[in-house]
């Protein structure tokens, strides 16, 4: 099976284990009690609102019991496909810290983890945010 429309090799050049230590560091921090930062509406929402610009309309936000900050947006234009994905990442990057992970978990839903790991500059204590961006 092809990996994309013009893929002729049908296999890559290596496995992904070169990044295992970095991913494991993130996972280890995420599992710590209290790692998810409080008050995302104070720490994240102003940046997200500014980043919406004329492309997005922020229509809702709520903090879920599991610590996920759910933000709902709608597009002002007629974007589709990979363009929505890339624009969603640009929007989420407005709150990116030294670690930043985004995955489109289903159509129109982007799960994001961002934060600071132990030893990252500028020397803040390890903390993070869980954000679910829902594009309607």
Keywords for this entry:
136 residues; alpha+beta; five-stranded mixed beta sheet; 25% helix
Please tell me about this protein's structure.
The protein is α+β, with helices and mostly antiparallel strands and 136 residues long. 25% of the residues lie in helices and 30% in strands. It has 4 helices and 5 strands. It has helices at 20-30, 40-43, 45-52, 82-92, and strands at residues 56-63, 68-75, 99-106, 109-116, 127-135. A 5-stranded mixed beta sheet has the order 1-2-5-4-3. It starts with 19 loop residues before the first helix and ends with a strand. The mean pLDDT is 92.
Let me know the average pLDDT. Answer: 92
Task: Give the uncertain stretches in residue-range form.
Answer: none
Per the principal axes of the C-alpha atoms, what is the gross shape?
flat
Order of helices and strands: HHHEEHEEE
Taken as a percent bin, the fraction of beta residues is 25-35%
Radius of gyration: 17 Å
Number of strands: 5
What strand order characterises the main sheet? 1-2-5-4-3
Report the helical percentage: 25-40%
Distance between the termini: 31 Å
Query: Structural class, please?
Result: alpha+beta
Regarding quaternary structure, how should these chains be classified? Answer: single chain
Number of helices: 4
Largest sheet: 5 strands, mixed
